[in-house]
TrEMBL record:
Residues 195-334 form the DUF659 domain. This is Dimer_Tnp_hAT domain-containing protein. Residues 537-616 form the HAT C-terminal dimerisation domain. SUPFAM superfamilies: Ribonuclease H-like. InterPro entries: DUF659, HATC_C_dom, RNaseH-like_sf. It comes from Quillaja saponaria. PANTHER family: OS06G0658400 PROTEIN, OSJNBA0013A04.12 PROTEIN. One of its GO terms (molecular function) is protein dimerization activity.
Length: 701
């Protein structure tokens, strides 16, 4: 091993007595000149700090100071010494690291100071790096020692950058922004010029993508054991080009894979299936558990083609999309002649509307409500009657009550968390909760019939039948919580999964695909019988108690080793999501990058930007600093974020007479409400106007 990397190596063993003395002297200066440890000093030269030394790598002898040692070992030219040809990349990187550590350690520490009493008003006439220190410069000795004037000038330049480019103030919390300026301030890089337009869009972008790919390797390494879901969705960019993106969703988070430009392709089932197949081959077929798309017929047909080619991979329709379709069916207007439009996805808007009820009522009873032209009196009276009508508010409460269970399930599934094993039970629980709300509202007994509930039930069952797959049933069967006494007694008529006819039939279909060989299938059936019937080791007290207490995956890790085949399947299925929401959220990133201002950017460059942006945020969220400190959750929200922005401009208004009056009235009243100094929340009416218009008389729910 080369001297300098092993603490037990003694360079003096090959040196003269004089060099042994010199090496002892050198050890005391290693903290400041670390590269002396990688050469052997033979003798000291009388002139200056020069010494005769031999390189421990190439064994050649030279005369010179520490600067030449550094140039020789780090292979730096222009110092009048030959570079060492024996130093490997690993050794050179280690030596460079030691040199940088010494340089950083010897630099003066940055001490934050409060704003000086004499605030900075006039920036220096020349850039900071061109200024020379002069004793006669203005300011006290304390200001000069800490560079207060330079700090203030730099702050002004950074602020000017924010203001001129329209950057949101929230950007100041970005850790990479902080790191960039800190590195520049702590390292003397004379004459440094920031990267320009072409560097940022070409070389540096490619370099960063390679860097991100290297950082993602540990996450991708878990796919073989934990499995992944291929999630895909379509979108149209600013230039009306159809794009299809692919993401790999797993326990480690959704990783952006690619985006395909389908401008010149006929997007039928064969084309979509070929794209999905290519992605599966790229990540490895044995790692893929399922493919998630929306519920479009062409996507379903493509999913069937993928299943035919890879029998162990299942096509799963997005549960969130299914729930959205069910909610639209339930809220659809019955009288389409009188109701030309229906605001289908307004649950959260109605909830906000309910929260500001008192603000709205304060608005219509205010003295300013009557401050209108004479021809608006009738409209104002119509609005006032609706807002103060208790029966109308009761209808709002009822809408929120019976759509609440659907909305709750939608919110739970609309995440990247593992929910595949929960979907089957959530559908049953949601329908039961909805039935309770409707029967309570209609004051019906359990054995009576509700026409409205029958309609809603038929819609939900129809949607569930179209979206339920054997994989949902197998994941449900492998959740140990559904065999616990606490869950079975939670609601009447609950049975464990192995006693449910439908679930058992679908589960056996999965086993047939996973284990086409009869002998292997017999082994896994025996393991499932022991697990579901609480036999052998599964009958222990801890095993039974932990079925309810532990997380399903933890339970399998603790108690499932005796059923290895079943355990491997369970650990994969219990870590999968059930929606394509990560793809839809990724289109928000794509639209942010490929906006109308940048609509000339090529699809490939936009894909690289999305790849870096999405995956860099994923990696950042795994950093401990993401959850604390000044950079906490730096990529969420901010002063530029408005979830309701543009909602009214995209909303359509009812065309019936009362709807037109209501809309006209509210738009006329808004500039004056709420009254000055009133914080009751009446001003939010403008944001929830579509819900107001949808709930007025004339709309059938």
């Amino acid at each position: 091993m080369v001297s300098g990397f092993a603490s037990t190596t003694d360079c003096s063993s090959v040196a003269t007595p004089t060099s042994r003395f010199e090496n002892t002297e050198t050890q005391s200066t290693d903290l400041k000149y670390p590269l002396w440890a990688f050469v052997t000093i033979t003798k000291r030269v009388e002139e200056g700090g020069n010494k005769c030394w031999a390189c421990n790598f190439c064994n050649e002898t030279f005369t010179g100071s520490y600067t030449r040692v550094k140039a020789h070992l780090l292979q730096t030219s222009s110092y009048g010494i030959k570079s060492c040809s024996k130093v490997t990349l690993d050794y050179r990187a280690e030596m460079q690291k030691r040199v940088e550590e010494v340089e950083n350690r010897n630099k003066p520490k940055c001490v934050p100071l409060p704003n000086s009493s004499s605030s900075f008003t006039h920036p220096p006439s020349a850039p900071i790096f061109e200024q020379r220190k002069r004793k006669s410069a203005g300011g006290s000795a304390l200001e000069q020692s800490f560079g207060i004037q330079s700090r203030n000038y730099l702050n002004a330049l950074i602020a000017r950058m924010f203001y001129s480019a329209g950057l949101p103030f929230h950007f100041a919390r970005n850790p990479y922004y902080v790191e960039a300026f800190s590195y520049a301030a702590n390292n003397s890089i004379s004459g440094y010029v920031p990267p320009g337009y072409n560097s940022l869009r070409c070389n540096l972008l490619v370099q960063e993508k390679v860097h991100i790919e290297r950082l993602l390797k540990p996450l991708k390494g878990l796919w073989k054991e934990k499995g992944l879901s291929i999630v895909t969705d379509g979108w149209t960019d600013a230039q009306r080009r159809p794009l299809i993106n692919f993401m790999a969703a797993s326990e480690g988070g959704p990783i952006f894979l690619s985006a395909i430009d389908g401008s010149k392709e006929y997007k039928d089932k064969h084309y979509i299936a070929s794209l999905i197949t290519n992605v599966i081959k790229e990540v490895g077929p044995q790692k893929v558990v399922q493919v998630i798309t929306d519920n479009a017929p062409v996507c379903k047909a493509a999913g069937m083609l993928v299943q035919a080619e890879y029998p162990h991979i299942f096509w799963i329709p997005c549960v969130v999309h299914t729930l959205n379709l069910a909610l639209k069916n339930i809220c659809a207007a019955k009288n389409t002649e009188r109701n030309e439009i229906v605001y289908n996805e307004c649950w959260w808007i109605i909830m906000r509307f309910k929260l500001i009820k008192h603000g709205l009522q304060s608005m219509v009873i205010s003295d300013k409500w009557n401050a209108y032209r004479e021809d608006s009196v009738g409209i104002a009276q119509t609005v006032k009657e609706i807002i103060l009508n208790d029966l109308w508010w009761d209808k709002v409460d009822y809408i929120l009550s019976f759509t609440g269970p659907i909305y709750d399930m939608l919110r739970l599934c609309d995440t990247d968390k593992p929910t595949l094993h929960l979907v089957y039970d959530m559908w049953d629980s949601m329908i039961e909760q909805l039935r309770t709300v409707i029967f309570r509202q209609e004051k019906k007994e359990e054995d009576e019939v509700s026409d409205f509930y029958n309609v809603v039930y038929a819609i939900l069952i129809d949607r569930w039948t179209k979206s339920c797959t054997p994989l949902h049933c197998l994941a449900h069967s492998l959740n140990p919580r559904y065999y616990s006494k606490q869950w079975l007694e939670g609601l009447p008529n609950r049975v464990p999964p192995h006693k449910d006819v439908e679930i058992s039939a679908e589960r056996n279909k999965c086993f047939l695909k996973y284990f086409p060989i009869a002998e292997e299938r017999r082994f896994v059936n025996i393991e499932f019988a022991r697990f579901s019937g609480c036999m052998d080791v599964f009958a222990s007290f801890d095993s039974l108690q932990d079925r309810w207490d532990l997380d399903p995956k933890m339970w399998w890790l603790v108690h499932g080793s005796s059923a290895s085949l079943l355990q491997n399947i369970a650990l994969k299925l219990l870590g999968q999501s059930c929606s394509s929401s990560c793809c839809e959220r990724n289109w928000s990133t794509y639209s942010f990058i490929h906006s109308m201002r940048r609509n000339k950017i090529t699809p490939q460059r936009a894909e690289d930007l999305v790849y870096v942006h999405t995956n860099l945020r994923l990696l950042s969220r795994k950093n401990e600093s993401y959850n604390k400190g000044e950079t906490k959750m730096w990529d969420i929200g901010g002063d530029h974020f408005d979830p309701l922005e543009g909602m009214l401009s995209q909303s359509r208004f009812p065309q019936n007479e009362k709807g037109a009056k209501f809309g006209k009235a509210v738009k006329l009243m808004l500039p004056n409400f709420p009254p000055s100094g009133d914080n009751s929340g009446g001003g939010d009416i403008y944001m929830i106007l579509p819900a107001v218009l949808h709930l007025i008389p004339g709309h059938v729910w």
